[in-house]
Amino acid sequence: MSQTPPSAAAAAVADSRGRRARLFANPWLQLALSQTLTMFGDLCLKRGAMSTIHLAPAWTGLTGLASPLVWLGIVFLILSFVTWLYVLKHLPLSVAFPVSQVVHVMVPLSSWLVLGERIGPLRGAGIALVLLGLAVVAQPAAKLEERL
Amino acid sequence: MTPFALFLILTSLAAFVGGQLLLKHGMEATVSGGFRHRTFLLFVTAGTMAMAVSFFLTLGLLQRFDLSYLDPFQGLSVIFVTLAAIVFLREKLNLRLAVGSLLITAGLILVSLS
Q1: Looking at the whole model, is its pTM more than 0.80?
Q2: Strands, DSSP E only, in B1-114?
Q3: Which ipTM did the prediction report?
Q4: Are A105 and A130 spatial neighbours (Cβ–Cβ below 8 Å)?
Q5: I want to staple A44 with a disulfide (CB 3.0 to 4.6 A). Which of A30, A73, A79, A126 is the partner?
């Protein structure tokens, strides 16, 4: 840290690398990453759970482990869990958790954009309400960010 | 829905909310104490176990019920987690947070009803 960089070019590289590291360490970015991973994980789990439904369903869901998709979903969820722990270290739970619910907007929106599923008026209204709530919650949180 | 299924849904929700509280408390210890702090090890382990219980119960429920049927219960977790964070972790509630959380919950329930 206190070392003098050998040249201006190296200093610039180190600076941009540092900025990138700082951006990656941003808890809000990690929160977004965490929810994106959750979205992929949930999609894998639902499809995997459905594909193992014929295997004498147990209330614990353990029969779902027969599906490779469930294991892929678990990998996504573990990665999401690690990023979530990082978020918890830096943001209050009462702010981070409501914001994390953005995942329930991302799933229907991605189904609409990628799969061409239609979003009815009720679902559209629900998505709008969630986004409005996120904007309301995130505003004092942005002030908190300035202090950090 | 049988009373047993309702019991499983509520147990899964309670394990989830409790798990979030334990994890948050454990991670707060790392700010000053690092990753060898006893509070971190104890609470993050307990929190992870609670989340695992909730995970397997949810997986079992997914085999029997539609995701859209189970989702409103998960939507309620916003209210429970926010309230629990205020009561147990002494986080501060302000008007914006309360209004925002209610809007998000209402939106989540609308999305899952549609």
Answers
A1: no
A2: none
A3: 0.83
A4: yes
A5: A73
pLDDT digits (tens, 9 = 90+) for A99-108: 898 887 887 7
Residues of chain B in contact with residue A129, where contact means CB-CB under 8 angstroms, are: 103-104, 106-107, 110
DSSP track, A125-144: HHHHHHHHHHHHHHHHHHHH
| A2 part of contact set with chain B, CB < 8 Å | no
Provide, as residue numbers in chain A, all residues whose Cβ is less than 8 Å from the Cβ of B56: 60-62
Choose among A48, A79, A83: nearest CA to A66.
A48
Distance CA A15, CA A37 (A): 29
Sequence spans of domains, chain A: 26-42+68-147
Structure tokens at A47: 């499809």
DSSP A53-79: TTS---TT-GGGGGSHHHHHHHHHHHH
